[in-house]
Amino acid sequence: MPNIFSPDFSETPYWWKDWRPHDDSLSDVPKETDVAVIGAGYAGLSCAIELRKAGLDVVVLEAELPGSGASTVSGGQTSGGANVGKKPTGRKLDSASGSGREIALLQEASDGYRTFERLVHDHKIDCHYQRSGRIVAAWTHEHLEQWKVKLDKLNRHTCTDGHVMSTPELRAELDTLIYAGGILLKYAGQVHPSLYFAGLLTVARSIGAAVCSRAAVARITRQGAAFLLATSRGSIVARRVVITTNGYTGEFMPDLQRRVIPVTSHQIATEELPEDLRRSLIPNNRVVAETKRISNYYRMSPDGKRMLFGGRARFFRLNPRESAAILRAQLVARFPQLRDVKIAYSWGGLVALTFDFLPHINRTEGVYYALGCNGSGVTMMTHLGHKTARILIEDAGLETSAYGVPLPSNRLYRGKPWFMPAVGTYYQVRDVIDKAKDRA
How does pLDDT run across 40-76, given as a tens digit for each residue? Predict the structure, then answer.
């Protein structure tokens, strides 16, 4: 088997070459606070920023180092509503008009994208953000027809501004023949996820939020009208608690752990490509996401020199070299012109799936939570954190958010996704069968 790795191959995330989680002990765990936020990812920091702007004392408790979870290792794609409620079933979508519930979900997701853009703009976060557009690459002609129905709803109720691409237009945007068609969503883009996180962290601390590293929460106990949180660095009393741990939700809150399904999303980055090759792959620098049940997603690096390619390589534990080999084969299937290109980086992070494929803001045992990005973490988790903060500040009802309903559960699930290898493999096989039928 030929060597597919570059001489400087790294199992460190590509994004960490610009900013990586590092040891910090700037903030001791205080004895008390108005709001304790558990989880220093996009949602936790977004929540803390909004709470601090309202004058509340905020402590963010992070089990490891801030940014060591999914926030600094994501694909860096941004959109407002395109993935809301997406199920890996291939079933037909509802009518073009959409139900009232669906419209509310789409509109709030669109508002969340604007919240993300405001944060970047207002705080001058230098994170290579571009509203460059997103191509939804149709795996089959049936998927393309389904998306034509969905597109009408998106254009009616969100800021997406999308259209069906003609075959010549798609060929001009993507140098591959593998897809049955494509949709261009103009109101979407890309960001450097690690630099975006670093910007949020800087903002949160600069306005007085305490972000505490290596402060894993072991237990939450009701103490009158407040809560006592026992952490690995001491205890803290908080008037309110918000959990934003997403795919890293642990045993300290078993009721939530059995409602979110952690799944690893794997990614690779190629070595630097020859200039003529890199300019031909995605000439207009769009981001790309497929319509498969087990989707792949990709884009060029911010400097335009590498292809970044991701997906769920397998649904069981893999080392970075194993996942890199699988993803590289998928990459070459789409772009045969990259068959001689080496892989320079391979990494992964946990996303949180939910049983209804929707994000949620709600309470359990008096504790607020904002969980379940279902793979759309940059904008959705930023929004969930911001919206949860507004609910606390305004003392508003959870129904003020379209996502303000409880997380569903399943009586056969207790927090360990034992079923994912079988379910994931089944969906992958269905994708292969669908493609074969479509070609036939």
Answer: 999 999 999 999 999 999 999 999 999 999 999 999 9
The answer to whether residue 437 is domain-embedded is no
What is the structure's pLDDT at 431? Answer: 93
CATH of the domain at 63: 3.50.50.60
What is the extent of the structural domain holding 123? 5-420
Looking at the domain assignment, is residue 125 inside a domain?
A: yes
Dihedrals phi, psi of 397, to nearest 5 degrees: -75, 155
Q: What is the DSSP letter of 73?
A: S
pLDDT digits (tens, 9 = 90+) for 256-303: 999 999 998 999 999 999 999 999 999 999 999 999 999 999 999 999
Asked whether the beta carbons of 352 and 249 are under 8 A apart, the reply is: yes
Q: Are strands 226-231 and 234-243 parallel, antiparallel or unpaired?
A: antiparallel
Dmax of the chain from CA atoms? 66
pTM of the predicted protein model: 0.95
Which 3 state secondary structure label does DSSP give 368? Answer: strand
Q: How far apart are CA 111 and CA 157, in angstroms?
A: 10
Rounded to 5°, angle at Cα 150 from 121 and 369: 55
Q: How far is CA 175 from the centre of its chain?
A: 26
Kindly compute the dihedral angle of the four CA atoms of residues 151, 155, 157, 158, in this order, to the nearest 10 degrees: 100
Q: What CA dihedral angle connects 128, 184, 152 and 107, to 10 degrees?
A: -10
214 in Cβ contact with 233 (< 8 Å) = yes
Instruction: Confirm whether 28 is domain-assigned.
Output: yes
How many whole angstroms separate alpha carbon 184 and alpha carbon 191?
18
Burial tier of 207 (Cβ tally within 10 Å: 0-12, 13-18, 19+): middle
Closest CA to 66 of 106, 19, 116: 19
For strands 360-364 and 343-353, give the pairing: unpaired
Tokens at 380, concatenated: 């959705």
Produce one character per residue of 239-261: b if its CB has 16 or more CB atoms within 10 Å, e if not: ebbbbbbbbbbbebbeebbbbbb
Q: How many domains does the chain have?
A: 1
Assigned domain for 425 exists:
no
Token pair of 381, please?
A: 């988790």
